[in-house]
Amino acid sequence: MLLPERTVTDSLHSALSSVLNLASTEDPPHLILCMRPQKKELINDYDSKSVQIQLHALNVLETILIRQFGFARRISFVDFLNRYQYLAFDFNENVELTKENCRLLLLRLKMDGWTLGKNKLLISDSSRNL
């Protein structure tokens, strides 16, 4: 009895399943990004400009630099204040969702291991359990 020939879809499904199984056993979870090394499907054809554009669009290089400085989590000022404003401000107080109020909240909570970016709060590994 002949076995059916393995299709490209079968191979892709198998490869993705093994990557997801590997990623699900690791702690913390990893982000998996798929990028195309070229626009045309040619063997041994690598378009470095295309890959560079994809890396830039996905903010991969920025994320690597931030992680190298020890900041494991990024959260926008708006999301952070929406989630945690009641820890340092009154419930009936109207808190503007600004960078300065984010800084004030962190100071009132006496947190360390953070820095403010242009649009996001960067939290270090030691403080990320907040």
UniProtKB/TrEMBL annotation:
<dbReference type="Pfam" id="PF00063">
    <property type="entry name" value="Myosin_head"/>
</dbReference>
<dbReference type="InterPro" id="IPR001609">
    <property type="entry name" value="Myosin_head_motor_dom-like"/>
</dbReference>
<keyword id="KW-0505">Motor protein</keyword>
<dbReference type="InterPro" id="IPR052409">
    <property type="entry name" value="Myosin-III_kinase_activity"/>
</dbReference>
<keyword id="KW-0966">Cell projection</keyword>
<keyword id="KW-0677">Repeat</keyword>
<keyword id="KW-0518">Myosin</keyword>
<keyword id="KW-0206">Cytoskeleton</keyword>
<keyword id="KW-0009">Actin-binding</keyword>
<feature type="domain" description="Myosin motor">
    <location>
        <begin position="1"/>
        <end position="130"/>
    </location>
</feature>
<keyword id="KW-0963">Cytoplasm</keyword>
<dbReference type="InterPro" id="IPR027417">
    <property type="entry name" value="P-loop_NTPase"/>
</dbReference>
<comment type="similarity">
    <text>Belongs to the TRAFAC class myosin-kinesin ATPase superfamily. Myosin family.</text>
</comment>
<protein>
    <submittedName>
        <fullName>Neither inactivation nor afterpotential protein C-like</fullName>
    </submittedName>
</protein>
